[in-house]
Amino acid sequence: MRRLLVAACAAAAITIAGCGSTTTPTLENAKLSAAAVLTQSAKKADEVTSYSADLVMDITAGAQGKGNIQGTMLYQKTPELATDTTLDKVSFAGQDLPGGMRVILLGDVMYMKMDMLKALTGSTKPWVKVDLKQIGSSAGVNVDQLLGQSKQMDLKTSVTMLTASKDVKEVGAEQVGGVDTTHYAGTFPIEEAIKQLPAEAQKNMKGQLPAEVKDMKFDAWIDGDGLPRKVQLSGEQKEGAFAATMIFKAFNEPVEIKAPPADQVGDLPQNLPVGG
Length: 276
Known about the structure:
Keywords: Lipoprotein, Signal. It comes from Sphaerimonospora thailandensis. By secondary structure, the protein is α+β, with helices and mostly antiparallel strands. It is built from 8 helices and 13 strands. A hairpin with a 2-residue loop joins strand 3 and strand 4. The termini are close together.
């Protein structure tokens, strides 16, 4: 079960990363190339302030087994980075994380609600507060860079990376959540994709994508405003494979992300066991 806890905490770290988009004037009827659509989509996504999304990730890790993560996310970019992620299902190698988990990020403070973590710490509180700057300082981790990575991993970054594709093509018209979209598909070399980003974003992206995966497959469903409604990424390596799907909704609608009630929050023990 310890390995499942580590996998769950890794999932929490991944879900700090946000995605989003915004309402913009619709694209004109002029026929754009598939590559031009992705370029325009990346520009429009830069104006995002909030979103909600459904998340699914499937992982195959060779002899270690298979994993599956399913959940939802709320994202807010301003006035400070904030996310509220609920993972209803976290499983790996045939083991399920009891009760799933929920993670709220407000600035540089994270709140975690996870039955297994509560049992390990012996806490009587359902939530655990993690001061990322304090933890980072004691562990020698640059939390400012970590939070910078979180801010860089938004929808604009994701779509900008897709623009590195040299083989993207239009698949056809499809609906996503009742919204008309055009489906595009292709691949992109990860190394070249990172080069499409600003210098600071390139620095923050290092180590965020699996080094063993050189090329990423993707599918993107773009609506009439030029914004992604659904993105799928998949990759394979010698030891396994992964596939992630994100469905985006409620662009720029008001969201309320706040800390849990103080009387339900405990602190993360300094002697929390992490090995095994």
